[in-house]
Inverse folding.
């Protein structure tokens, strides 16, 4: 749900910069009794948002229920490039992927060797 608020604020911020409101060209929302949901919308400027989620046991006890969600959003940057972010939010946290997002550099060879050695000796 936090994502919905962020997406809405993002849309409002973009719309505030323009003289005319940006029309929503499609919008779908589905909520089921089991707690699962999905929604998506697309605006006239090409911005797209999609999300779905469901209830899942995320801990050892039956009452450890949480919402797991996945989705994506895309928009066109000021320089004309379409930016797309795909994401998952589950018991492992929020994980976003996108071609424009930075990635860590590869591990140095000596670290890879050290980890392999530790694993071989049973430490890891």
């Amino acid at each position: 749900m936090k994502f919905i608020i962020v997406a809405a604020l993002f849309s409002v911020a973009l719309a505030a910069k323009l003289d005319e409101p940006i029309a929503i060209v499609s919008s779908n929302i589905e909520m089921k009794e089991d707690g699962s949901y999905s929604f998506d919308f697309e605006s006239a400027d090409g911005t797209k948002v999609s999300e779905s989620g469901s209830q899942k046991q995320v801990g050892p006890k039956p009452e450890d229920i949480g919402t797991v969600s996945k989705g994506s959003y895309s928009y066109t940057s000021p320089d004309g490039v379409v930016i797309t972010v795909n994401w998952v939010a589950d018991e492992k946290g929020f994980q976003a992927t996108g071609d424009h997002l930075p990635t860590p550099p590869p591990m140095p060879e000596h670290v890879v060797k050290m980890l392999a050695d530790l694993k071989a000796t049973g430490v890891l």
Notes: The longest strand covers residues 65-76. The chain is about 20% helix and 40% strand. Helices lie at 2-16, 109-120. The longest helix spans residues 2-16.
